[in-house]
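User: Second chain of the day. Same drill as before.
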Amino acid sequence: MTSVRDLELIEKARNGDKAAFEEIFNAYSGQVLNFLYRYMGDYQKAEDVMVEAFLDVYRRLPSYKEQGSFLSWVYTIALNYARSSFRRLWRREIPSSGSLGDNPTPLDTAQAPDATRPDNIARMNEAEKTVQSCLKKLNEKYRIVIVACDIEGLPYEEAARVLGLSKGVVATRLHRARAIFWELLKKEGLDIER
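Assistant: Same format as last time:
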């Protein structure tokens, strides 16, 4: 659910307080960017979509209803922009470069103390590239549930609301997506414990 502080900021932003919206942006932009990057597979495009989405969030604040979490509402808007971005690219028939972007984010910001050693950084970067590559190979309907539930940690109910699916469909797709994803990771030589 949305915190009391967030609700106060939302109300201030609705009334034209730009500093309040800036606080909202600072609080959520990193999570939204990570969500979009994992879904789109391209950091620069994800940044562009994130900016577009937050501009729309600002415009839509008056219509926000406190049902579910504010972050889920923002994810829904961002996901719609990401899908629109994909449709625009497909209509233009621009081939995908397969680029992971120049600024991939780490899978987990909570790192072990020796994570700053060069050999560990190199190993983590390689694992990150493999994970992102395998995510890109997944069909969109599977990729998005992995991103929403396993990477972003949304509960099934919130993921269902963001994706416009039933909770049962999210659970079914996630089960199938995980099986396919783990198989892809194994084929790439990345054996992560489940």
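The CA atoms of residues 33 and 125 lie 18 Å apart.

User: Great, on to the next one.
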